[in-house]
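ok, trying the design again with the full structure, not the truncated one.
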């Protein structure tokens, strides 16, 4: 009988351990506001410190690849939010983009993990130091004017919500 109890005890412990490892930690944030529900061209409001930016969502691979390439201007508080299916060191370049940009990599907890300047028509590949789930492109100088730095947390809500 002791052997049966020990076997069931080991199985129970293993199941509990696996459930614990696979469950998210309390307070862990993966996808805020269901951002994956948005389609290409949807608009979201992004709060960065006290500033609010209106961004177009780029969720499909084709739209993410095109990005802001064929835009000749971008309003001061406008941008594009690239939504990727998973976190990685997503690379960007400015090869066919005619406007200078801030490229802001954001992790799944909506914290800024890297910021780079994109120079028009530059073919240099820009890659973040850390994995990111989202990338926000803004007019050059905007992220600094909002007082954002590495670790700054942002929030995202649909533009049609209060």
């Amino acid at each position: 009988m002791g052997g049966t109890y020990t076997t069931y005890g080991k199985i129970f412990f293993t199941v509990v351990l696996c459930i614990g490892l696979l469950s998210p930690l309390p307070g862990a944030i993966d996808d805020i506001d269901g951002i994956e529900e948005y389609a290409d061209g949807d608009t979201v409001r992004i709060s960065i410190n006290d500033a609010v930016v209106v961004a177009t969502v780029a969720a499909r691979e084709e739209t993410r690849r095109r990005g802001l390439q064929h835009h000749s201007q971008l309003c001061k508080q406008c941008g594009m939010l690239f939504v990727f299916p998973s976190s990685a060191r997503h690379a960007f370049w400015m090869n066919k983009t005619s406007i200078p940009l801030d490229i802001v990599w954001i992790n799944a907890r909506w914290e800024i993990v890297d910021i780079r300047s994109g120079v028009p028509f530059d073919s240099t590949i820009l890659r973040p130091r850390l994995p990111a789930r989202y990338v926000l492109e803004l007019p050059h100088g905007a992220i600094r004017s909002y007082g954002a730095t590495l670790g700054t947390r942002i929030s995202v809500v649909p533009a049609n919500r209060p």
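Keeping the full-length input from now on. The chain has a mean pLDDT of 79.
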